[in-house]
Design goal:
The structure is a single chain. The protein has about 500 residues and is α+β, with helices and mostly antiparallel strands. It contains 14 helices and 19 strands. It is flat and about 75 Å long. The chain starts with a strand and ends in a 17-residue tail after the last helix.
Length: about 500
């Protein structure tokens, strides 16, 4: 859901939801956002929606409408854009996008200069949260020892069967939290910059507990990270080690369990559990969490090795593509742009890590079938696409790990309505990666090569053009994923890191 958060002006701190197709901002508006500011016209500006895209239009106001301090008549909005009308400044945000972004931790003083200061032991980190499903009670009572062994078995099973790192850690967090009856459990990873900051690798929040109730003490994290030791306090407010911390007093922290996650002998992360009840955790549960922490350290270490190997592979692919593009200056950088668009769209479509990786590979190698083409073959348009697919098939099938992207490369010119080539595939018969690749190619064509007239398009015009092709050339779900990627500011800033967790 799109929202406008007032950053400065008479309504500072207020949040307005953009529910309807149109939302008017003005001084005398009763059915939109009323801004009592002399610099604001009676009907100053209007925000309107076209599908997944949001626009702002100046309504011939006296003092103008500004987006990121640039005067506009009409502008396509992205998350984070600042809108100024009169003396009021509003920030365009997407609440759902924020909830999907599990890598964010917002501190109490986020947005203030103090937030960039070195680690403050008395500061508190607030966590954005999601609610996990209802707790399922065991069918029959178990002894504590057998119950904990069962948890370790479940974690081992998850580790062996789950290939996606974020899913692995989310599932682990849920299994452990439910066993020890934690209100919140977070698997956190320490970032090198800025000092004292963390990213969430996995989390669990008990149903019915308000998201704002979950907080993590940096002081407890600091002790766990720096000393590499597990911490258990049944009532932090009464514990002499932590009772002096401001946040422990203000937030009335109760039961806290925090264990280190070591990677190659160095503590890099923690498993942090919290309960609003006093004496919620036992020493046996601390031992269980410590064992899970050791297991997670081993798992992350192995995934780091896999990631390094994958990085070498990707670098090799980039070198190969760069060498191919040197033959034609007009195509230099094209494959990397296509691959970046594919990553953004794939993530918005909800593909897992492996799917996003394959989307990148499909973008990088989308034109691999043209390498063996002779000049004579290039001059025969009727057989060009089948021949390129033939060569792509011959080149890719012999490389382990690339066979999954072959269907995408072969179907990049197919159309949703069946009017494409070379096989005239239609609808769901076109693989998802092929649909993503086709839209990425279309976007790049409009942005960097222009339409039939030859002039390059603006991003707004390109997105509107692609949106018009929904249900004909492209499927609507993938088109909407592209539009969301732009709106959320993810379309042009994707790197090529496929693991969501920071493993450096």
């Amino acid at each position: 859901m799109a929202i406008l958060r007032v950053k400065a002006g008479p309504h500072k701190g207020k949040v307005f939801e953009v529910k309807d197709e149109k939302l008017v901002i003005g001084r005398d508006v009763t059915d939109g956002i009323q801004v009592m500011d002399q610099g604001v016209s009676r009907r100053h500006a209007e925000i309107f929606r076209i599908g997944e895209m949001y626009f702002i239009q100046d309504l011939q106001s006296r003092n103008g409408t500004f987006v990121n301090e640039k005067a506009i008549s009409e502008e396509l909005l992205r998350v984070g854009d600042q809108i100024r009308v009169g003396s009021s400044i509003m920030v365009f945000e997407d609440r759902q996008a924020q909830l999907r972004d599990s890598s964010r931790i917002l501190s109490d003083d986020a947005g203030h200069p103090e937030s960039a200061l070195p680690l403050n032991p008395s500061a508190t980190i607030r966590l954005s949260t999601t609610i996990v499903g209802k707790r399922q009670e065991p069918a029959a009572p178990q002894s504590e020892e057998s119950r904990h062994l069962n948890v370790l078995l479940k974690v081992a099973t998850i580790t062996s069967e789950e290939q996606d790192l974020s899913r692995l850690l989310e599932r682990t967090a849920e299994v452990v939290a439910r066993d020890i009856e934690a209100d919140h459990l977070y698997i956190l990873w320490a970032k090198e910059e800025p000092e004292g900051s963390f990213e969430i690798l996995g989390r669990y929040d008990k149903e019915g507990v308000e998201p704002s109730a979950g907080c993590v003490s940096r002081g407890i994290l600091r002790d766990c990270i720096r000393q590499g030791r597990s911490i258990l306090t049944s009532d932090a407010a009464a514990d002499s080690q932590f009772s002096a911390m401001a946040t422990v007093v203000m937030k009335q922290l109760r039961s806290v369990l925090c264990v280190p996650i070591a990677l190659l002998g160095k503590t890099r992360g923690v498993l942090y559990a919290y309960s609003h009840k006093s004496e919620a955790f036992t020493s046996e549960e601390l031992e269980l969490a410590t064992a899970v922490g050791i297991q997670l350290g081993t798992t992350v270490g192995l995934l780091k090795m896999v990631r390094n190997s994958d990085k070498f592979f990707r670098n090799s692919v980039q070198a190969l593509v760069s060498g191919i593009e040197m033959r034609n200056p007009n195509t230099r950088g094209k494959s990397k742009r296509i691959a970046s668009f594919c990553i953004s769209i794939a993530k918005e479509r909800g593909l897992d890590t492996a799917g996003v990786r394959n989307a990148w590979l499909a973008g990088m190698l989308h034109d691999i079938g043209s390498i063996p083409l002779t000049d004579k073959e290039r001059e025969q348009p009727l057989t060009l696409e089948p021949r390129k697919n033939h060569y792509a098939r011959e080149l890719l099938k012999s490389v382990p790990g690339l066979e999954d992207i072959l269907p995408a490369v072969e179907s990049q010119n197919e159309r949703w309505d069946g009017s494409g080539s070379p096989e005239s595939k239609k609808g769901e018969a076109i693989p998802v990666l092929g649909r993503i690749l086709a839209i990425a190619l279309e976007l790049d064509k409009h942005l960097y090569h222009g339409s039939a007239g030859g002039e390059e398009m603006t991003i707004k015009d390109a997105l509107l053009k692609i949106r018009e092709m929904a249900d004909r050339q492209f499927d609507r779900e993938t088109v909407n994923a592209l539009l969301r990627a732009y709106r959320n500011g993810k379309l042009f800033d994707q790197d090529e890191e496929f693991f969501e967790a920071p493993l450096s």
